[in-house]
Design goal:
The chain is of the alpha/beta class. Helices cover about 55% and strands about 5% of the residues. The structure holds iron/sulfur cluster (2 copies). One iron/sulfur cluster binds next to helix 4 and helix 6.
Length: about 425
């Protein structure tokens, strides 16, 4: 074994970061993988030990270190519990980057993930073409045939909805004027998965922001936020994508904006950390980044006119509640809808198991993490489940469908949008 491992050579700050942990164990009960396995190595404290051991050159970077960092959801529930302020998410990204750089992220699934993230997701036109092909395959039933031959494809089919037709996946208008008394101007990040699979959510977001008095600009040249790449240990691609967005959101349309709004918790967390990825250059974008619910709550929601007589469970996306500390704003917005009954459920702040590409790479653990949430949602028996992240929407929707539950998953802004329009989600 070398005196200093590749992990230490690559990023000496990891050793310092790991020393912030005082081993108190307060984070353990919040960790989904620890709760399931009961193994110290699968806990935040255990993983920090492993990172530290590798950083000090005492254990190899591969083997159990790569395995346990791969099994981590990156949900950052441990950060919410930590009294020492350990920045576990950043450590995880640096650790995974070291593992990827050392060629230790092994197996066809990781290779496929790397190819898809670097060569397709990072390029909006290629991603759009890929979803068009997938949609065609779904309409021809080719995905079903492939699923019969390949268990992995069959599993992935269960997670993916039908790809919407091209009209529903068109880009948002570059400018939408404020309605009523104008309060300001915001820029919107379209996102990658959101734009391709949840175009309705993006359009609802624009309408709700406009209804609240904001001009909405959608800058040209923006693209993927790079969060998925960072979680996979590809920090160079995430920095490249962040640089593109810094340029796209600097004075969009030649005028300043009050905020750069995102409706995806993962993207919002990434935008808010642009200053860490790009010290100096990324500070303005990080300062302006707001989740759509956070922004509407911050500026004061205009009371919706219509009512929605429905029971709604709000489920916290990890990258909203744990990475950005936002949990009450979406609940306050939903509670402002006349007729809507916000129903608490017992597992709202735990990860759903989606975690970017985790549900494809760690299938068994992902499903085991999801189960308690589905139990809690079944007990609460809502009409709708509202959550603000596309990965969570896909994972929870797939779970409730598999269980035969009647509840459907929506984004909070869809409920607000329908309350403004005076009708329920799904109604035209
Ligand atoms: S990020 Fe989530 S899964 Fe990973 S150690 Fe922290 S709590 Fe556990
Ligand atoms: S709560 Fe923080 S300090 Fe305590 S064991 Fe977990 S990471 Fe370490």
């Amino acid at each position: 074994m070398s005196e200093t491992s590749p992990l230490f050579d690559l990023d000496p700050s990891l050793l310092d970061d790991s020393l912030d942990c005082v081993h108190c164990g307060l984070c353990l009960s919040a960790c989904p993988t620890y709760r399931i396995t009961g193994r110290e190595n699968s806990s935040p404290r255990g993983r920090i030990y492993l990172i530290r051991g590798a950083a000090e050159g005492k254990i190899e970077l591969g083997g159990v270190v790569a395995e346990e960092l791969g099994l981590c959801l990156g949900c950052r529930a441990c950060e919410s519990e930590c009294p020492s302020g350990v920045e576990y998410g950043a450590m995880l990204e640096k650790g995974r980057a070291a593992i990827a750089d050392a060629g230790l992220r092994k197996g066809w699934a990781y290779r496929l993930e790397g190819f898809a993230l670097r060569r397709i997701v990072a390029f909006p036109r290629r991603l759009h073409a890929a979803f068009s092909l997938l949609g065609l395959a779904q309409r021809l039933g080719m995905d079903r045939v492939a699923g019969l031959l390949l268990p992995f494809v069959d599993y992935a089919r269960g997670l993916l909805p039908r790809v919407p037709r091209a009209a529903a996946r068109r880009r948002l208008p570059a400018f939408t004027p404020a309605q009523g008394e104008r309060r300001g101007r915001v820029a919107l990040l379209e996102g990658c998965v959101m734009a391709e699979l949840f175009g309705d959510v993006n359009r609802a977001t624009v309408r709700v922001l406009a209804r609240n008095g904001y001009d909405v600009v959608v800058p040209e040249g923006q693209g993927c936020c790079g969060a998925l790449h960072a979680h996979a240990g590809d920090l160079s691609t995430s920095r490249r994508l962040a640089t593109k967005n810094v340029e796209a959101f600097a004075l969009p349309g030649g005028e300043p904006v009050d905020a750069v709004v995102s409706n995806s918790a993962g993207c919002g967390a990434a935008l808010g950390e642009t200053d860490q990825w790009l010290p100096g250059r990324g500070e303005e974008l990080a300062r302006q980044a707001r989740d759509v619910c956070e922004w509407l709550d911050e500026v004061g929601l205009r009371a919706p006119s219509g009512s929605l007589a429905a029971r709604v469970c709000y489920d916290d996306p990890c990258h909203l509640v744990h990475a950005q500390g936002i949990s009450s704003a979406p609940r306050r917005l939903l509670s402002a809808i006349p007729g809507l009954e916000l129903v608490a459920h017992a597992d709202a702040e735990s990860c759903c198991g989606a975690a970017g590409t985790y549900n494809l790479l760690q299938r068994e653990m992902s499903q085991r993490v999801l189960e308690p949430k589905l139990d809690a949602l079944a007990a609460a028996d809502p009409d709708w489940i509202a959550t603000g992240n596309p990965g969570c929407m896909l994972q929870i929707e797939a779970g409730v469908r598999a269980r035969g539950m009647a509840a459907r998953v929506v984004h909070p802004v869809e409920l607000l949008d329908r309350a403004y329009a005076g009708s329920a989600p799904g109604e035209s």
